[in-house]
Amino acid sequence: MDLVGACRVFVHIGERGSFTLGAQAAGVRQPVASRRVSALEEHLGAPLFDRSARRAQLTAFGRDLLPTARRLVALADDLGEEAERALRRPVTLAVPDVCTPLDLAHLDAEARGSGLHLDLRPVARAERRSLLNAHQVRLALETVPADEASWVVPLGLAGTHDAHAGGVRLEALRVGRARVGAAGRRVWITPEDDVPHVRDRLSRVRDAVGLRPGQVALARSVAGALTEVLTRDDLLLCSAHQARELSLDWLPLRDAVLERGYRLSGADDEAGARVHAHLAGALARFLGARTGRGDDA
Q1: I need a labelling partner for 79 at 20 to 30 A (CA). Which of 21, 73, 204, 247 fits?
Q2: Ordered domains of the chain (ranges, CATH)
């Protein structure tokens, strides 16, 4: 039995003294109202209305229970309103600061279309975990190895060179013996990719193909790395999506598999489940990613 629905009908009929008017106020047909009152009486164990009277006259039992029924209906209405407010409350989500305002706008628009309200916070990789720990955001896109990720972003090298289908090998950056004093072209790693599963792997390939230690360098910011790319013909380690936004030509790496992995983290499991269920594809487009191997985790 729908206890709240039955009590709602009971209250409206009891206040109006009429099954017809009470049913209209409750938004149901009169036969439905009668069945709900009968079910409530059976549930409570005694009649609520005197069936011998011409009007819907409350019994003494009905008069005693009417105030409590009013409170129950009012609490149910308050609960519904609170649920609506909770659903409208924005989910604070920390996202990579390498994403553009247009990326953010597209993600926000797709979220609204799915009935979700996001408060997007673009911040650096290390700060996303700090915000989670401080409970300043409910969720965050954290960087993880590809085998733990829900979204995986392939990384390559971007520069002012002309792109070609064959990709690029790091060994092509090797400085010849005749150029003893030459520094060689550098590959810049930005803070978003300054993690062991990217940085250390790239360093191992650097050593294996004979590049100089300084040819793989850590940048303080994307802007700083971009300056070196534009002025020294260096290369930026980034995604194809990021390269397009920076107006750079992007080449896949042929002698290393480097990937950014992302997963949705946070203490709010319910919000995380809703975001993942409704926005998995939108987040993949937002990140320039493909679906990862950690989706079922």
Answers
A1: 21
A2: 3-87 (1.10.10.10), 97-148+262-291 (no CATH), 153-259 (3.40.190.290)
